[in-house]
Structures are given as structure tokens and as C-alpha cells.
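Saturday, quiet lab. Running sequence design on the C-alpha cells for the scaffold JK sent over.
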């Protein structure tokens, strides 16, 4: 409850828009520090992430970004940065992490991505779990996001979904060694147990395992 009050306090000097607004009006209202999403014309404020959530986000985004940049595969971005899903969905989401292939780089605008990225990673919190596993799962599938990773730090559970030919997500499990290999980022793999270590391993040690340094 404290974090929700803290979030609300941020917007006391910048009131939330009344009624439904267009995506363009939403962009004009928010700024680069705004943690909010646009859902069917309404503004949905996101609560601040917990420390554990932030640490996992930092580790994963570093590994993905370093790999993608070294291989010249595209770009990796983190929240707050909006992803505008196809018009029919009327959604502007803020994924925790997302990967954009070279082919889709033209979709990146100054303050948002105008279309679905190739990979989205959501690190859940108790507040976001139902939304990430329910609403966003359906939306990302319908939008054609090729891979969706759902990381749950509290349950120490990682779910990996891949878009099949029929346009539906299929669960892909790590191998017997607990390693997940991405399809949309060729050559990238993740030792899932890294995410549950306390403290988390250093990004440098993980990058060494990946053969990047």
C-alpha cells in the first residue's frame, strides 16, 4: 500500500486525464519518467518495482543487450518505454525488457515502439502477476510477439512461450541442465538458476559464461 500511495503522490501535481483519451494524447501527457500504460483509451498507473524485481531486470537486460549488440542483431530496451500494440488491441504497454531485431528497428520512434517487438520479458510482482499472465499474454500473442518470457521471482518460476505457426503460444521448457535457448535471438542462452541466486551472480560472470568476455 505504501508504494501505491507513493506512486499516486507523484501525479498530484500532474492530474490524470479524465475519461478516455487517444494514444497521441497519452503520449503528450506522459514523459520519459512516467510509469503508466494506455489501455483502451484509459491511463493505468504502474506501481514501483521491488528491489528483487529491479535486480533481475538489470541482470537480464545487461546480458541481452551485450549479446545483441555484440552480434549486431538489433537493440534491447527497458521500461519506461512504451510499446504500441496493433490498433485493434488499443494498448500501449511498458514491458520490463524487450528485444527489437534489425528488421524491426524502423518501428522505434523517439518515445515508443510502433508495433510488436520480437521478444518481451515481464518480471512479475504480486500486483502484476494476474495482468502479466492473463491480459498481456493474450495481447502479446495476438500482436505477434514471437517470444514471451514470464519471470516470477517470488515463486522462482520462469515460463518461456514461443509463437507457433498457428499464431498461438506454446510453452518451451529449459533443457535438463536448466538452460533455455532463445529462438528469436540466435545463439543466446540463459541458465535459469542464475535468476534465483541470492545474491544474484554478477553480470560479468554471466557474460563470461556466455563467452562474451
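Result came back. Writing it out in full:
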Amino acid at each position: 500500500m505504501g508504494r501505491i500511495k507513493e506512486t499516486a503522490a507523484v501525479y498530484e501535481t500532474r492530474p490524470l486525464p479524465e475519461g478516455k483519451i487517444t494514444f497521441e494524447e497519452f503520449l503528450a501527457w506522459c514523459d520519459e519518467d512516467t510509469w503508466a500504460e494506455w489501455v483502451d483509451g484509459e491511463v493505468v498507473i504502474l506501481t514501483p518495482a521491488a528491489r528483487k524485481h529491479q535486480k533481475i531486470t538489470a541482470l537480464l537486460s545487461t546480458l541481452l543487450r551485450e549479446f545483441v549488440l555484440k552480434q549486431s542483431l538489433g537493440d534491447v530496451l527497458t521500461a519506461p518505454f512504451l510499446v504500441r500494440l496493433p490498433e485493434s488491441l488499443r494498448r500501449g504497454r511498458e514491458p520490463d525488457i524487450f528485444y527489437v531485431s534489425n528488421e524491426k528497428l524502423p518501428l522505434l520512434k523517439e518515445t515508443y515502439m510502433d508495433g510488436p517487438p520480437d521478444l518481451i520479458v515481464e518480471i512479475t510482482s504480486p500486483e502484476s502477476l494476474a495482468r502479466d499472465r492473463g491480459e498481456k499474454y493474450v495481447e502479446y500473442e495476438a500482436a505477434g510477439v514471437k517470444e514471451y518470457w514470464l519471470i516470477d521471482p517470488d515463486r522462482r518460476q520462469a515460463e518461456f512461450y514461443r509463437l507457433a505457426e498457428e499464431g498461438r503460444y506454446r510453452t518451451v521448457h529449459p533443457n535438463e541442465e536448466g538452460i533455455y535457448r532463445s529462438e528469436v535471438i540466435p545463439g543466446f542462452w540463459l541458465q535459469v538458476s542464475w535468476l534465483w541466486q541470492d545474491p544474484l551472480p554478477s553480470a560479468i560472470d554471466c557474460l563470461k559464461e556466455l563467452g562474451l568476455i
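Notes for JK: Confidence is low (pLDDT under 50) at residues 1-13. The first helix runs from residue 2 to 10. Ask whether to fix the surface positions before the next round.
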